[in-house]
Amino acid sequence: MDRIILHIDVNNAFLSWSALYLLKNGFPYDIRDRYAVIGGDKSKRKGIVLAKSNKAKKLGIKTADTLYSAKQKCKNLEIYPSNYEWYLKMSKQLFNLLSKYTNEIEIFSVDECFLDYTNIKKLYGNEITFAYKIKEEIKNTLGFTVNIGIANNKLCAKMASDFLKPDNVHTLYQNEIETKMYPLDVGDLFGVGKKTKEKLKNIKINTIGDLANADYKTMYRLFKNQGVELIKKARGIDDSLVVYWKVEPKGIGNEITLKEDIMTKEELYPYLFSLSEHVGLRIRKQNKYAYVVVVTLKNNHFKRYNHQRKLANPTSSDEEIYKIACSILSEMWQDEPIRLIGIRLDKLTTSKIRQISLFDKDTSLNVDVLEKLMDEINDKYGSQVIKKASTDQKKLFHKRLK
Ligand SMILES: [Mg+2]
User: What CATH class is the domain 15-84?
Assistant: First the structure.
């Protein structure tokens, strides 16, 4: 059965989201309808364009242009500051909305994700109808527009969402690759950077179609293994899976009834250690990781109580479980005789890849997401430009999240 993958991408994310923030705070106009950009630090000459309105785009202003050159292109250009805290909120709202339909969502960046529709098609019907429906739902409930690409794999879904913007749904099924993708400039192929593009143009590979039909030997000579990968990509071949967290409520636990009541928490440590080994082994056997560690105690009056700790990154390591359990024990210790002790691992996940879950309410995850956002900006636009501002921003966030 062919897979059906959707790629959902927010149009001019930072600018749209800032527009909503400003409107919400009484700003008199919608900056999406003006010659506007979101800039790096305005006071620094090195500030760059992080996002632009469609009007600004029509004047030739591009993402990563310096603010100086952007102003040359448009004398009345309005520059607004970025607001990462707000962007994270909007991002989370988007992914929460989508997670109503499936948990098979891979967050690709702060404003993009892949959704595996294959298994839910029987529930929601035709994927194109579904895409239009969620596009409208996002617009009506969250106030911003998205592009949705539909294809049989992630690569083509991502390519499709990049076709005519904004507020559109496009398909790029297997049988549409030659007509819809081959005519595009080779630089438009996902993963082809500036340098690769130049090298390809030097050997007269101008379109994605040229690359798809390129000679393997020549490509290998020039690009080694990447050359073969490039040809595969140009042909729209991609087997990578949508990687998502699957959280299961059922936990793994072990308890020990003690031969005699234990009076000090230090005496309980060896029991905790042995329990950590037990549950650790069981969870690893199932190839799972736990988001939550719970310690249970029963006192000499048969009163049971427990404390738990939620982790930013799930674990399956004995040592980590033991350390966390000891610290939980200290928190809950009431200096009374203990008859039973137990450890339970909860909120298990099957994915082996440590990925950020935006659906989680744990604030420490927000920091991870923020860091991912910063990494992304640095990747895209060069660390020298953003570094200082982002470091400051991070500190600010850590403070606010505390
Ligand atoms: Mg986007």
Answer: alpha beta
Ranges of beta strands (E only) in 263-374 are 289-299, 304-315, 338-349
- Between the CA of 162 and the centroid of ligand 1 the distance, in Å, is 9
Note if 198 is an active site residue.
no
List average pLDDT for each run of 10 residues in the chain, which is 402 residues long: 95 96 96 93 69 95 89 94 90 92 88 95 96 98 98 97 96 98 97 92 97 95 92 94 70 87 91 90 86 91 86 88 94 90 89 44 42 54 39 39 33
Please give the CATH number for the structural domain made up of 247-349: 3.30.1490.100
From the CA of 152, how far away is ligand 1's center (Å)? 21
Closest CA to 211 of 191, 195, 235, 194: 235
Question: Full-prediction pTM beyond 0.85?
Answer: no
The answer to whether the beta carbons of residues 42 and 81 sit under 8 Å apart is yes
Q: Which of 104, 106, 112, 127 is catalytic?
A: 112
Phi, psi of 315 (to 5 degrees): -135, 160
Say how many Å lie between the CA of residue 14 and the centre of ligand 1: 8
